[in-house]
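Ticket #4471: structure output looks truncated?

Reporter: J.K.
Steps to reproduce: submitted the chain below (372 residues) through the standard prediction queue, then opened the result file.
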Amino acid sequence: MIKVMHYISKMNRGGQETFIMNLYRNIDRDKVQFEFLCTEPGIGDYDAEIKELGGKIFHIDLNCIKGKIKQLDNARRLYKYLKKRTQEIQVFHIHTQHAMEAFFSSLAAKLAGVKVVIVHSHNTSSLFHVKAHKIFKYLLNVMPIERFACSEAAGKWMFGNHKFRIINNGIDVDKFKFEQSVRKKIREKMGWKDNYIIGHVGRFNAQKNHQFLIEIFNEVKNYIPEAKLILVGTGELQENIRKHVEKLKLEDKVEFLGMREDVNRLYQGMDIMCFPSLFEGLPVVLVEAQESGLSCVISETITKEIDITKLLYRVSLESDSKVWCNKICELKKYMLDRSDMTTDIRNSGYDMKEEAKEIQKIYREKVSSNDK
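Returned output as attached by the reporter:
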């Protein structure tokens, strides 16, 4: 049995957390088991399912002050924790978007004696510590670690020109496959029968650019009176966005659905997705949406690997809300038949059943080579 410990803030319903859970559901749990070392207190959205699958969740008390002093102190705390459990943990899998955190965490793990340390890059930029990231990216390159990234751009962001392995953000393709009967039921249940539904799924933070999304919708409603904007997710900026919606008097047209476990069904009820993120590694949401046959208007900054089907339409973030509105209105006139996209998704390597086999093979090979 290979024991893998995932190092992450908290197992909530974000993109990288959803990737880990998709992997956990599909990996052979008789041969590989997961533990989770979380840096934030409290219960995560996925905690109950993790325990059902046989996983364990631990929390580490880290320093919450800012800067490099925090990272040094946290590395010391992480080292002390891992030193006690070195014999139990064969793989320490770090999920992060910042080289400074990746460097100190991997340093602590290697000093503690963990044989296989993986740094997994899930993003292409950061809103914090950008200068420090550039410095620590070079320091990270001297570390004896395995390097994973969800896309070419995410790998370049974290590892520069160092060699890395791309791990696709796979999904359960059968779960998200479009069915007309499901669409009819969910639209009736949600009261969307006569509406044109524009959807967005994502955490309420600056990266997801909800403020601009609301501005886009404020234009769209002038041309598509029956339009509604559906926002799925939670986050620190949710109340700010809610106030912005109220300021524009859009309360009757914008629905905040919070955290949902039926996102696969909600996709089927939507007519289009609008995704104006400032940056992304490789958003699982857009893989899921494409499998659901959903046309998506997205920002040009999002990594090219997400272009799995012909359902994505890119618009520059430098364009104003009217340009985005025009693209949405144009697509409404020529709504595509939501045919089965499963073949495209699988052929592009985004079927998690197959991806899980590959990752399991990597875990096994790295553990075996370090045991020699």
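Triage note (M.O.): checked the attachment and the full token line is present. The two ends are 17 Å apart (CA to CA).
Status: closed, working as intended.
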